[in-house]
Amino acid sequence: MSESMLFRDVVRERHSMRNFLPHPVPEDILRSVLEDAQHSPSNCNTQPWQTHIVSGSKRDALSKAILAADDAGQLTPDFSFGIDDFSGVYRKRYKEQGAAYYQAIGVKRDDYDLRRDASRRNLEFFGAPHVALLFMPEVGDNVRVAGDIGMYAQTLLLSLTAHGLGGVPQTMLGFYGETIRKELGVDPSLKLLFGISLGYPDMAHPANQYRINKVSVGESVIFHQ
Ligand SMILES: Cc1cc2nc3c(=O)[nH]c(=O)nc-3n(C[C@H](O)[C@H](O)[C@H](O)COP(=O)(O)O)c2cc1C
């Protein structure tokens, strides 16, 4: 894959990668991806994203600190999240995603130990050599800024694909906001929305071989004229 891929191919090729090869991304390529992400739109041109890219020994130390926080039950999310808040079609879709992932990696529905291990892979960045932590300032009810971070994240994810790389956005990393701020020396005024583990995806791994169904335009869009 290369930067000359057609836009529609890049969009369709991008999917969440949950297993990575260990070798790091050369700095010039990483910078090129981050340059692309800077071109994202934002409310009133505020460009409120504050991104920390963590690699090497610092990445290992960060993962260790998050796993320790998880072991100690120290969850410190900056924003609320409850899986049971999803109902109806949203609940159906999240359950389908979970089932597809666990089936792909050979974990049975009722094997809670293996499911927990698989979930903890989030905290090991799925073996990725880099993780991007997406921080944001608090502004009003935060909805607009969170939208801007989403715009930025998607540009970054598409650029990863165009560069032959892959990533996975992870709300789960946002559950350890205080631990991550402390490890990286980030000011408490900056809130962690989510992280993106990134690198060269291991395409031979079953976690990267299944694709999630996308609903049709007809289910999401209503035309008026
Ligand atoms: C903001 C955001 C947070 C996410 N958090 C997680 C996460 O914590 N762990 C995970 O494995 N996947 C996470 N995902 C990935 C979604 O499960 C995935 O995007 C969705 O199932 C659609 O699949 P696709 O990305 O392959 O198109 C997240 C996605 C987004 C956009």
From TrEMBL:
Its cofactor is FMN. The keyword rRNA-binding does not apply. SUPFAM superfamilies: FMN-dependent nitroreductase-like. The keyword Lipid biosynthesis does not apply. This is Nitroreductase. Belongs to the nitroreductase family. Gene3D superfamilies: NADH Oxidase. PANTHER family: NAD(P)H NITROREDUCTASE YDGI-RELATED, NITROREDUCTASE. Residues 11-200 form the Nitroreductase domain. It comes from Silvania confinis. InterPro entries: Nitroreductase, Nitroreductase-like.
